[in-house]
Write a structure and sequence with these properties.
heterodimer, A: mainly alpha, 2 domains, 77% helix, 0% strand, B: alpha/beta, Rossmann fold, six-stranded mixed β-sheet, four-stranded antiparallel β-sheet, 9 helices
Chain lengths: 565, 254
């Protein structure tokens, strides 16, 4: 057993060290390697002091509680919040890691190690999760503090509760990771799950805004609202969590209840919450064991993803058949890849949530009548900015497909035009959704003003497209949209692309907005946006040949980098 | 002799490393030319230069009478390529891949549809045409790549290690297809390090070693050059391989 543990520890360590190494030593690879090290350094430099601080607070708090000099409430609230967050991270991170499956399951299945031992290793390895690791010293320091303060009984219960919560977190991590791996074997189901989780997280971030506003509104009388009395501060009723029945099932709540019972009086036994904690660990462990068994029974099994083989051979008006083919392929990549879908479908969420917020808190003054147009403009801006990483690496995202494109008689100018049209079609989805959401929630305002929004957005996109194509050709980076871990656009290209998009949006969007504000005429605003579009087409017409020449010179590098070489 | 492909002093370097060192190829029209060489000899680099994926460092090339550096698009309209890594869009289906290739070659919709249906049926891919290439096995990917190369009806086909990692059934299908292609007047330039494949399939042969062309000509001429010698023995002699250098590994026991 020790021999196997040692082998696994060395194995994990080598994986970590090798992940920091680069194959090449050119400037790009060096930058990438250093940035990875920086991330680790930043995480360590925040997690380690935080962990020490938590442990210190726990030991001081435990001692104070035992001696009756400290209040239990802030300590338990802190524990409740911290444990809830850790629990959330542990449960969600495998999904965000696109399955979280250790890819070595097949390799492990070939080793002469019993399945029982391997499952034990899987559970134990969860304790090395950085979040759990950061919290463990505090969990163990708290009973030590209670013991130091002279309350041995409460210290024993707190120690048991600490072991219980660690067990529950480890089994929760294993269950999430292994069930996630099982789920992600069906690629389509896995991808949809992840998109739903990401959309839910994004939407969830806005819930406190809506919830706080509604709660505050409900708490005020109509006379107070009419008199414009100041709103009371938003309070989040954390303590109410423990009172709800479903919340009691959470490991973090069971832990806090066990501590409450241990501290409250000597007559009340924390055995019940501890038993529920142990029961949770057993249930989660059982689920993890079941998933582990399924994975090992058929480690290589993977359900394929059937898709609608439409094979559309449609020409897009205004561009050559070759450019149309490139555009449709780019569009399909955006709609079929995990990251493409995330970019497209999460971009309109803020507009939806802000639109809902504005329904409860209408905009002040004359803006209230055009709240929908403002929301649509905001959504358009967010949608275009959300696609920057793709725009900044639009050739390399094709990966091996770029080589196929280079082997076919596609002229460089057709490739540039096709990519611009394809990215534009992809951007049109979140932009349209944003406008639809805004129109549904705030339908007021002139139709001409509504029409000016997509026209100005198109102008901003078209004017910026040669810049994005140039940056993609000049600074390509290996970028796989099909997985969440598959690299990213070159940081410099991404930054410059975002800045140029912001500038373009500022110029072409600002032009329409300025005309509307100064002239108060939706017709003129639409005309200004239309004029901007004509100007943008001129910029693109001048820019594309230059970019095509750059691509012609860099084909070799582009194809190699796109395939990660 | 009417030649489909010629190179004169073709050279490609990567820094100080010379991958292809001034080779002179002559591939007759209507032939199945096998380009043989050990791993790392320069086969793939040569084929990448010929297909426009790499820019040669020196020398000249003529493909179907055209210079691929001067007129890359005109050359690409007449050739099909199955590259070493197959180069497919992972997020497309086989049918969509063929539609993409047909569209960029300027074929009309009906031609693309009919040729796609025929090729997918021939390659046994019609039943799985709804799956993404990302979910295909290596053999299915090879067949998809070959179908994409054949769809525009090329005059010259470049195949880089097409029999690598595919099963006997798929291998047989591909061989039959290649024979039929040559019988109809097409030319094939095929690289391989598997001698048996080249010996059975090809009528012309070129052997590359350390970036230099060490032999070229009809396969029969290479065979009869040294009486009683097999192609394998001839090949090993040309590339200077030591056949008896295996370590004994005495600790291995049955």
């Amino acid at each position: 057993m020790i021999r196997i543990l040692r082998a696994f520890a060395v194995f994990r360590w080598r994986l970590f060290i090798n992940s920091l190494r680069g194959r090449r030593r050119d400037s790009l690879e060096q930058i990438s390697r250093i940035s990875r090290l920086l991330v680790i350094a930043i995480v360590s430099s925040t997690l380690v002091p935080a962990s020490i601080l938590f442990a210190f607070l726990a030991i001081v708090g435990g001692r104070g509680l035992a001696q009756g000099t400290a209040s239990a409430l802030p300590l338990l609230m802190g524990a409740r919040g911290a444990l809830f967050m850790v629990m959330l991270f542990v449960a969600i991170s495998p999904i965000l890691r696109f399955g979280g499956i250790p890819s070595s399951v097949t390799r492990l299945a070939l080793l002469p190690i019993s399945r029982r031992v391997l499952f034990g290793m899987e559970i134990v390895s969860q304790l090395a999760d950085p979040w759990i690791l950061a919290l463990t010293p505090a969990l163990l320091a708290f009973p030590a503090g209670l013991a130091a303060g002279g309350d041995a009984r409460a210290a024993c219960w707190a120690l048991l509760a600490a072991l219980g919560i660690l067990g529950a977190l480890a089994t929760l991590g294993s269950a999430a990771s292994l069930l996630g791996a099982l789920l992600f074997r069906n690629r389509r189901l896995g991808e949809y799950t992840m998109i739903v989780v990401l959309v839910a997280i994004m939407a969830g971030a806005y819930v406190p805004m809506l919830f706080g506003r509604n709660a505050a509104s409900r708490g005020r009388s109509s006379t107070e609202r009419a008199a414009g009395a100041p709103r009371p501060g938003i309070t989040i009723p954390l303590s109410s969590l423990s009172s709800s029945r479903w919340a009691r099932l959470l490991p973090s709540e069971a832990y806090v209840r066990a501590l409450e019972d241990a501290l409250r009086s000597r007559t009340e036994s924390p055995a019940l919450p501890l038993a529920s904690l142990a029961g949770l660990a057993v249930v989660l462990g059982g689920a993890a064991r079941w998933a582990f068994g399924r994975l090992f029974d058929a480690p290589g099994e993977r359900r394929n993803r059937a898709t609608r083989a439409t094979a559309a051979i449609r020409a897009i008006p205004g561009v050559t058949p070759a450019a149309s083919a490139v555009a449709w392929t780019t569009m399909r990549l955006m709609l079929r890849s995990v990251r493409g879908r995330v970019m497209i479908f999460t971009a309109p969420i803020p507009v939806l949530m802000i639109g809902l917020y504005w329904r409860t808190t209408p905009l002040a003054g004359s803006h209230a009548s055009i709240a929908g147009v403002i929301g649509a403009a905001l959504g358009t801006t967010m949608s275009l900015l959300a696609l920057q990483s793709v725009l900044a690496d639009q050739f390399a995202i094709d990966r091996a497909g770029l080589t196929l494109t280079f082997l076919t008689p596609v002229a460089d100018r057709d490739l540039v035009a096709g990519k611009a049209v394809g990215c534009g079609l992809a951007a049109a989805i979140p932009v349209s959704l944003s406008i639809l959401f805004s129109a549904a929630l705030h339908p007021g305002g002139s139709l001409l003003l509504w029409a000016a929004v997509p026209v100005a957005a198109t102008a901003a996109f078209v004017a910026q497209s040669p810049v994005a194509a140039f940056l993609s050709a000049a600074f390509p980076a290996s970028y796989d949209l099909m997985t969440l871990k598959g690299g990213n656009a070159h940081p410099l290209a991404a930054i410059l692309c975002s800045l140029s998009t912001a500038l373009s949006l500022g110029v072409f969007g600002g032009l329409g907005a300025l005309v509307y504000v100064l002239m108060d005429s939706p017709v003129l605003a639409l005309c200004a946006a239309g004029g901007g579009l004509a100007l943008a087409c001129g910029i693109a017409w001048l820019g594309y040949p230059t970019v095509a020449r750059v691509i012609g010179r860099r084909r070799e590098n582009l194809a190699m980098i796109a395939q990660g070489r | 002799m009417d030649l489909a492909l010629t190179t004169t002093g073709l050279r490609r370097t990567f820094g100080d490393f010379v991958a292809v060192d001034g080779i002179d190829l002559a591939v007759p029209k209507g032939s199945l030319y096998g380009f043989l060489g050990p791993n790392g000899a320069g086969k793939s680099t040569t084929i990448k230069c010929l297909t426009g994926l790499l820019r040669p460092s020196g020398g000249q090339m003529r493909i179907l009478g055209l210079d691929p550096v001067e007129s890359p698009e005109a050359v690409k309209r007449q050739v099909g390529v199955v590259p070493e890594d197959l180069a497919l869009f992972e997020h497309l289906t086989a049918k969509e891949t063929l539609a993409f290739v047909g569209q960029v070659h300027g074929l009309d919709r009906e031609t693309i549809r009919s040729r796609t249906a025929e090729l997918l049926a021939l390659m046994d891919l019609d039943a799985t045409s709804g799956q993404l290439v990302a979910d295909y096995s290596h053999g299915m990917r090879t067949k998809t790549s070959l179908a994409a190369a054949l769809l525009p009806a090329p005059k010259l086909l470049f195949l880089d290690e097409p029999f690598e990692g595919i099963d006997a059934i798929a291998s047989r299908q591909i061989k039959d297809l290649l024979h039929a292609f040559v019988l109809r007047g097409g030319t094939i330039f095929l690289t391989s390090h598997i001698l048996e494949v080249v010996e059975r399939l090809c009528d012309q042969i070129g052997i590359i070693h350390k970036g230099r062309l060490v032999a070229q000509g009809p396969i029969e001429a290479l065979r009869t050059g040294i009486a009683g010698e097999t192609l394998e023995a001839r090949f090993l002699k040309l590339v200077g391989a030591d056949a008896g250098g295996a370590s004994t590994l005495e600790w291995l026991s049955g």
